Task: structure prediction
Amino acid sequence: MADELVRMITKDGYVKGMAITGRKLTERARQIHKTLPVATAALGRTLMAASLMGSMLKEREGSVTLRIKGGGPLGVITAVADSEGNPRGYVQNGHVELPLKAPGKLDVGTAVGRDGFLTVIKDMGLREPYVGSVALVSGEIAEDITAYFAQSEQIPTACALGVLVDRDQSVACAGGYLVQLLPGAPAEIVDRLETAVAALGPVTTALSDGLDAAGLLQKVLAGGEPELLERTAITYRCQCSRERVTRALISMGKKEMGDLIREQGGAELTCQFCDRVYHFTKEELERLLQNATKE
Ligand SMILES: [Zn+2]
Result:
């Protein structure tokens, strides 16, 4: 089954929600970056969070970047999503191994760390992107996203994200939801949501039991007669191209390019988001350097 993103609103108009399934995109990230389980879970959660937040943008060319730096052994985690919710990302140290927190429970919070920040960069096509940053709460990602919305955007939010890694280290299931109260929502709506969230239990358990993204969100919005607004397939999508890599090469500067030509006689650049490798021969580099010098 393809990964997907669904969006719903309750009939009373007080709660809007989104849910995601991301087994394939998380598995793709694992294969690209060869991550071990705790890194797979942390990166998968961050990718899905970026996807949910990217799809909230109204600008077609917009993007959302999440950067989590918690001081833990994983280092910095970065995820970027386009406005359709297609994410890409990487983690600095994907080979971290930690003892389980409880039987079957990966210790994502310790791996990420709690001493640092979640930074959200929204590129909405304006000259300056919007940048918001909050101190990490637990390093478990979903709680940190909730804190971001409460502090930076003043929107009461409930978020859950889960990745279940199989015995062979592949991704068994992944998914989550993000629901938000709209202005004027009465207090009993909060009680209703809290009851529904508690009844649903852990996301990975619900997914293992066979729920899809729509099923997940229906349970979270239970009692509010949710209406389906949108359902889209999403995928791990890198936007690298030879053109972009060439621009990055030129921006290194003439001296560095000259060094590459002299010392390595060419260049081999691997995209940080995917497994694509770009080769540049000595002649190509020389031509780029010449053009750069002309300008
Ligand atoms: Zn790429």
